[in-house]
Amino acid sequence: MDAGVGAGGDNPYHNAQHFCEVLLNALYLSLLAGLAPREKTQLLVAALTHDFHHDGTTNANVPFRLERLSAEAAAPYLDAAGVSREERERITAMIFATEVSVGTRFARDCHLHLAGGGSSPGLSGVPAQLATLAGDARLALQAVVLGEADVLSSAGLTVQYGELQQDKLAEERKQPLGSAHKLHFLSQVFREFTVGRFFSPNLRDLKIAAQDLAEKERG
């Protein structure tokens, strides 16, 4: 990555800076979650590689395409480092949990079910790499932490930084992304923090700002 391999150097958003932001977010959230040292190590490897070789586009109509690409691109490095099959599968599951439309919500539902007695999550549309979360409480917690670390980067935490991140995403996708898109992401796709509830006030302010701007644009 330091040499530019798979680091998204041409991507305005999904690039080495994003990798580092998610890595730092994951480290902070891992402390809030009380992860064990080995769990933390697995999490940070997943954070560093979750968008490895990102091609600057979206999954479009191929579910988990980018997450699968990242996991497969990281596999030879993990093999060379002697990472066990079990740990590679855990890292892959966490990477798949960064897919926000299904993965992040599924991870949260699994965590709430296994740790808090929430309803059992459905497996419809969930790939095998991610389905393992449904029976592993610690892995579900790790996946929630990574999903929220990824969202912290894209949401932006402050209104100003959130706008900057939105501009980078729009440039990368080569299409305008207005306040309605941001509000949809915050209110419907992501919704709320579980482990990172410390940042809930930031999320509230981002939603209010997006709502106000959307109303101005409509009218």
Instruction: Please identify the top-level CATH class.
Output: Mainly Alpha
Oligomer: single chain
Run of helices and strands: HHHHHHHHHH
Determine the N-to-C terminus distance: 46 Å
Number of domains: 1
Shape: globular
Instruction: Return the CATH topology.
Output: Catalytic domain of cyclic nucleotide phosphodiesterase 4b2b
Class computed from helices, strands and strand pairing: mainly alpha
The major beta sheet can be summarized as: none
SS element count, helices: 10
CATH superfamily: 3'5'-cyclic nucleotide phosphodiesterase, catalytic domain
Q: Mean pLDDT across all residues, rounded?
A: 94
Radius of gyration: 17 Å
Per DSSP E runs of 2 or more residues, the count of β-strands stands at 0
Poorly predicted spans = none
Strand content: under 5%
Share of helical residues:
55-70%
CATH architecture: Orthogonal Bundle
Q: How is the secondary structure organized here?
A:
Blueprint: H1 16-33, H2 37-49, H3 65-80, H4 85-96, H5 100-116, H6 128-131, H7 137-155, H8 159-173, H9 179-190, H10 200-218
Helix pairs in contact: 1-2, 1-7, 2-4, 2-7, 3-4, 4-7, 5-7, 9-10
